[in-house]
Amino acid sequence: MNIPLSQPDGRLSCLHTHTLFCDGKDDVETMCRVAFEKGLWAIGFSSHGPIFRKTGIKSNWHLPDERLDEYIEAVLTARRRWEGKLAVFLGLEVDYIKGLRSAMDPDIRALNLDYIIGSVHYLVPAGGNVAAEPFTVDGSPEELDRGVREGFGGDNEAMMHAYWDAVAEMIALGGFDILGHVDLVKKNNQDGSRFNMESEAYCRRCAETAKAAGQAAGQAAGQAAGQAAGPVVEVNTGGLNRKRISETYPSVALLRLFREQGVRTIITADAHRAEDLDGHYDFARQALREAGYDAV
Ligand SMILES: [Zn+2]
Ligand SMILES: [Zn+2]
User: Structure pTM?
Assistant: First the structure.
């Protein structure tokens, strides 16, 4: 990723956005205009990358395979239109789905995107019920209940471990620039009824994830001969903007672990509407401060 994470004048960006091409509510031009009006220096488009052709998974919230070219053209047209006023970057949010989809897939590499957000939404049941479909951890509680029942014999703790396993596999595989909403598994566990987020097991998974991200960033930095490189962690305010959770992804506690590993961060809104483009950014800044970061 050759995108500066912040500007000397302190202006921020939003590199995690969705439009009408996937599950967002506004078009590319509206997103650019509002980003400019809000004083952001850059906007990046990160439509949910197509999955059907590669995985056979049906979804109504991903960019359809047959609209990929149109999406790219729309973003590149916006880049030309906003030149000199707002930087416009072309990206995708690419799912890691065990054995089925990753940012390393040739069809993704061939696109030469400005950046890629790597995200885990789907879980594939571990070694168990092959009849069970991959399911999302951030969909409705009912979908998650069904996935846990059919794929993990009703064991939410096993589902939690499978989530962090998937994140670890995604980091090890690489190919992405921004680690997306890294503790998304907490979304449907706000009351702690599925698993204990203060348990030794959960905290250990968080620490392992931070360490793996730190190592990946360190390796990439080494390869780029001193240049800052490697995955950065997004401080994602999407859950706050959509009133689903009362904190950022990741939590302050997890951010602290990333800081200890020297992992850099970027604030994003995971905006599905133009009005959310800088939503809860002050909240995110505060979370970063609490975690000991003094820069994004
Ligand atoms: Zn996502
Ligand atoms: Zn997103």
Answer: 0.95
